[in-house]
Structure prediction request, 396 residues.
Amino acid sequence: MEKLTAVSFKGKRVLIRIDFNVPLDANFKITDNSRILGAIPTIKMVIAGGGKVILISHLGRPKNGPENCFSLKHLVNHLSKVLEVDVAFANNCIGETAETAINNLEEGGVLLLENLRFHSEEKMGDTVFAKQLANLADIYINDAFGTAHRAHASTAVIAQFFPESKYFGLLLEKEISNLEVILENPQKPFTAIIGGAKITGKIDVIMALLDKVDNLIIGGGMAYTIAKAMGGNIGNSLVEEEKISLAKQLIELAKSKGVNLYLPSDSVNANKFDNNAETNTSEITNIPNGFMGLDIGQESIAKFSEIIEHSKTIIWNGPMGVFEMPNFEKGTREIANAICKVTEKGAYSLVGGGDSVAAIKQFGLADKVSYLSTGGGAMLAFLEGKPLPGIEAILS
Prediction:
């Protein structure tokens, strides 16, 4: 497949599927522009090449057509500042409105089209809708790794209408190459750190990683389900009762594959889900009744940090506790610090998943790891070895 750097954009209408699904506050101000920044190199390359840039994205989960809170018009000013170009906006992504705006676009100009998901056909993977989008351009670029695992019209279906002119964007290319480091040639010891609230949604990637890693560290809410599976008392902690037998299988499977499975030994507990709650620390298998585990304890932090310190490759997905609350952030912060320290010494570290990325940014450590992935679900699907429709569509 031809690289984007070899493509001539001069005078061409270039449709770029980017992932501008960014968080907005009550005043529609962007609270984290990482995904926008990630797309800038591809956009600037097309601008510099004299192409007409047409940007398409989704934002949020609109239910029934257009909703002001999910309009991409709220991103135009910020995008204009970052690109140092006046970005035009069209309040539809198809039809006469979009076509007229494109016709008015000069070479090197940038146009942002309205939210794709204002049309239900986008998520349905509708071919007619994909063709309407395709008719707007001469070249198609997918730079939206965060949606690559979805078989949507603008990611998986549209590419068929550009048989000789479909490409990976620079960000998507970078995502693939960094994940391939993990999958194809990881330096040993290889440690995976999986956290988050529930085993549901993570079990497939855990199973896949058991064939690759030397060490698997489990933290976050899912650790309490495993603690209960081991016969422990977890008080009022989060538990997935229907996953207890699966947790037992996970323990046995890790053992059979020779993977070192590390679970928290201690837990920081609270009598309610509140930063100012009454707290105590206990063994994770002996949490007092009336208390719930909200973070890993110091003993677990020390053990996990030691494992990380001796690793050469680390992947981290999911926090160790409720890091959004200052009194329960220590476990996540210390694990992040341990990853950054070993990265500085030459280890390769990849952090992905919304909460993990949010945490490492909150602690001011985003530039201290090898790579921050922009796609949570897409990253997990890639690591599971599943084909990603958005990627397959470009390669086929």
Remarks:
- Residues 143 and 169 are 4 Å apart (CA to CA).
- The mean pLDDT is 95.
- The chain has two domains: 4-173, 186-384.
